[in-house]
Amino acid sequence: MTDYLEYYKPFPIREGQTIDFHCDHGFVPANQQTWQRATCINSRYVPEPKCFKICDPSIRFDHGRINYRYYILEGNNITFVCDTGYSPANQRSIITCTKKGWSPAPECILPAVERTCKTISVSHGYFESQQQSFQINAKAKYNCHNGYSTSKGETQAETQCLTEGWSPEPECIKTCLKPPGGDFIFNTTKSVFFPGDKLHYECKEGFQITNNTIDDTVTCTEKGWEFTPSCVSVVCKTPVLENGTINPREDIFQHNMVVRFNCNEGFTRVGSESAQCYHFGWSPQPPICKENVKPCPALPIISHGRVTGESKAVFQHGDLLEVHCEISFALYGSKIIECVDGEWAPLPSCVEEVRTCGSPPTIKNGFFVNAESSTYRHGDTMEYRCQQQSIIIGTNPAKCLHGQWEIPSCVGKLEAEPSEMNFRPVLEYISIYY
C-alpha cells in the first residue's frame, strides 16, 4: 500500500480486527474522508487500503477555464471550455485526473487558419498592384510620391507578406533630391538627402555666390532644401587709376579678364602693370601713378641670404636684384626683388632646411665626380660626367633640394636634340624658388 499513513500499527492483527489509515497530501481514501477503516477478513483488508489522487479544477491556464467547483477524484473525467476564438489543443476538451495530475494538461490555442495581408495605405506613397489581399510570403512593390523615399533613399521598394504582417513595413519619408546641375558642382555621389543632411556645393570657375564667396552649404529640411543653391557670374568693376589709363576700357569685366595700367606723362607707376579679375576682386591690387617716386638707398638685409646684381650707391624705382640663400637654407618667396618707391619688394626669406641627401645616385652612361661625403645639405651640388658617345641633359651640377637629388641624365648624341643640350630653364617671379 502506498500514499497512506496508518493511525497505529498493531501488526500482525487477528481476523476481525480493524485498522484506521489516512492518505498523503493530495490523496484521499475511497470514502473521500480524512480517515478510513479497514477490517481483516479472510487474511485481507476489506476495503483494501488505497489512496486516490484528487485534482484541483480551479487551475489557471491561458484562454480557458474549468466550470467545476469541487475536487475531482483520480480516474474521473471533466470537460474544460476555451475563450471565444480559441480551441482545445488536439481538438480535445476532456481531461482525466491521474496520479500525476490532469492528463492531458488543458490548453487553448488559436485555430490554425491561413492568414493574408490586406493592402494598406502608405503615407506619401501607394502600392503598385490593385490587389486587395496577398497570400503569406507574397511580395508587393510600392512607390513613394515626389519628394519622398524610403530610409534607404529609394523611391520604389518591395515588401513581403508574413504571418505577422508586411515586412519591412512600407514607409515613405520626406527627402531632398540633389538639385539639378547649374553653375555649381557638388562634392558627393549621394542623390537623396534626409532632413538634417547638409550638402556642400561650389561654384564653377567664373561664378560666385552673391556674397563674393565661391562655396556654401545648404541643409535639407522637412519642407525641402532651406534655399536653392545658385551662383552668379563673376564680374569686376572698372578699377580706378588717377593720373593714368587702363586698357581695355569697359564698364564691367568678366572673370579672368586682364587690364593693363599706364601712367600719364610725368607720372611713374608704383605697383603691378596689370591685374586680373577674380571672384574676390582684382589681383594684384591696381597700382598708383606718382609724380615723384623715391629711390632705394641701400641693399636689403636678408638673414642667411645674399643679394646679387649691379653695384650701386642708390637704386632707382624699378631696379631689380636677385636673392640667393646660404647652403642648408631654402628660399621662400620670389627670387627677384624690385625697388618700389623707396622699398624693396617682395622680400623673400631664407629658412633652414633640415632634410639632407644621401650619396648621389648613379646614372646610366654617366658618373659623378669626387663624392667625398655620404651626407649632403640643402643646396650642395655634385658634378656629373657622361661616358664617351653620350652627352649630359638636365641640371648639372646636380643639386640637393629638400632631401632629394635633382640629377641630369646621359643620352647618346644621336638621341639628343640640339635644343636639349645643356638646357637649363631660367625661372623668375615664382612663388617658391630654390
TrEMBL record:
Q: According to the UniProt record, which cysteines are disulfide-bonded?
A: 296-339, 357-400
Q: Which GO terms describe its cellular component?
A: extracellular space
PROSITE patterns found in the cross-reference section: SUSHI
Question: Please, which domain of life does this record's source organism belong to?
Answer: Eukaryota
Is-annotated flag, keyword Translocase? no
| MF GO annotations | complement component C3b binding
Return the Pfam families for the record.
Answer: Sushi (PF00084)
Domain (Sushi) ranges: 53-110, 174-233, 234-291, 294-352, 355-412
What GO biological process term is on the record, naming one? complement activation
Keywords carried by this UniProt record: Disulfide bond, Signal, Sushi
Q: Which SUPFAM superfamilies does the protein's record reference?
A: Complement control module/SCR domain
What is this protein's name? Answer: Complement factor H-like isoform X1
Originating species: Notechis scutatus (mainland tiger snake)
Q: What is the lineage of its organism?
A: Eukaryota, Metazoa, Chordata, Craniata, Vertebrata
